[in-house]
Write a structure and sequence with these properties.
Rossmann fold; single chain; 10 helices; globular; alpha/beta; seven-stranded mixed β-sheet
């Protein structure tokens, strides 16, 4: 009831777009992730599969470049998420075998999903299987990030771990890029604590369409704390962007994006994970 009322209030007052844009900017992880996705979107082509699509938050970025965009979700866990209340997934599957023939897609994408599967190699192998020769794989996964979507939160990934998973699937790694540095990591952890623990803004975030893979939240904001919480979040988010450029630290990152390609030379039949 509270969540529905909050969503209706935000929509009726016309605040949704303004609140969403502001929250996206201070959300360092999301803003960096979206910037990475926008940069690689032109590499997508043909039929595209979004594995762990949620409510397809990135579909609009790829539509100009692909002929078809299909989203698939894990049946056992998707139903309990906030994204399930908004639709999005075209198909659900058993979490073992993607319901598509070999080489069915020209582009396969998985955004912040690998940490939620207990058998990541099997999932990456499956994505490699349904990707056709000449196809592009886009994968992101967290490295320094809070527990989320519990209890289905199993792993964190280094760039070397992502490379190993993808190469095992018979794909050629093209590049790996990081999401921020030391100050982004520190600021993100502090701003998340302030937003969700002190300000209790999870319900507001979901009302604007964010945090789709989390369980639905009905927390009531602590309005008395917001005059202190919101300015602090803005200052830390802005400061992290400046400091990461001034004092880069490549060994720290919120996560990584990996791009890979499947060719006749790299494709192979992989053993079971």
């Amino acid at each position: 009831m509270l969540r529905s009322g909050m969503e209706n209030l935000v929509r009726r007052t016309g605040l949704a777009r303004t609140v969403r844009r502001a929250s996206d900017w201070v959300d360092l992880q999301l803003s960096l992730l979206v910037a990475q996705i926008e940069a690689v979107a032109p590499m997508a082509h043909g039929r595209m599969l979004d594995v762990g699509c949620g409510d397809k938050p990135y579909e609009a970025l790829f539509r100009p470049y692909v002929t078809e965009y299909i989203g698939v979700e894990h049946e056992a866990t998707f139903a309990s998420t906030h994204a399930a209340t908004r639709g999005g997934a075209d198909l659900v599957y058993d979490g073992h075998t993607l319901p598509f023939a070999d080489g069915s897609f020209d582009t396969v994408m998985s955004i912040q999903v690998l940490e939620h599967t207990p058998a990541p190699q099997r999932l990456v192998d499956e994505m490699g299987r349904v990707l056709g020769n000449g196809g592009t794989l886009i994968v992101t996964a967290p490295f320094c990030f809070r527990l989320h979507e519990e209890p289905h939160d199993y792993f964190r990934y280094t760039p070397h771990g992502l490379r190993t998973l993808v190469e095992h699937a018979g794909l050629e790694v093209l590049q790996v890029t990081s999401q921020g540095g030391l100050f982004t990591v520190l600021a993100h952890k502090l701003t998340v604590f302030l937003a969700f623990r002190v300000g209790r803004l999870a319900g507001v975030a979901q009302a604007t369409g964010k945090m789709g893979h989390e369980n639905p939240s009905a927390t009531r904001p602590r309005y008395w704390a917001l005059p202190a919480v919101l300015p602090a979040i803005v200052v830390m988010s802005a400061g992290a962007r400046v400091l990461d450029r001034a004092v880069p630290e490549p060994s720290e990152s919120l996560g990584f994006m990996l791009l890979a390609r499947k060719t006749a030379a790299t494709a192979k039949k992989t053993p079971p994970a």
